[in-house]
Design brief:
Blueprint: E1 4-9, H1 16-27, E2 30-33, H2 34-43, H3 50-69, E3 74-77, H4 83-96, E4 99-106, H5 110-119, H6 132-141, E5 149-153, H7 159-172
Amino acid sequence: MTGRLVAVSGLPGVGKTSVAEILAARTGSVHLSIDAVEESILRCGLTSGWQVGVAAYEVSRAMAEQNLRLGHDVVVDAVNDSEAARQTWRTATGRTGAQIDFVHLVISDEREHERRLSDRDRGLALVGEPTWADVQRRRADYAVWSDEVLEFDTSARTAGEIVDTLIALLGQR
């Protein structure tokens, strides 16, 4: 009686949280957002940095494992730009016997991507919003996927349309 883990991935500003929230709401899944966890850790007085980011992934992994063992499906919303980050979710599913699906969101229209970042305010005071230069740096270092991945261009489809397609595809697996 284990659930399924869907890891919604991509650069900041591509629409991960929107897709993850809609997917979780429509499927009754648990939604875990790395940025929300990191914001909570920072509110405890820790200094922003690599270690806090790793801690946010590990806290989310533990919460994912608990929910997967209870038979709940889990939707994780995280950049997942490195093999180490992706291994977090492979570990969770390996420990629970759950199935994993990686979803990668991109924006082919760079102007639209930059516009979305400039208009964005998620209310995360301590995590903050990345600049376009931050996103460009992350893009340059984004690891190539070694897993099978479902990729969607969010400049071509709405979050709701992507979720409709995802639900149909995941139902076939």
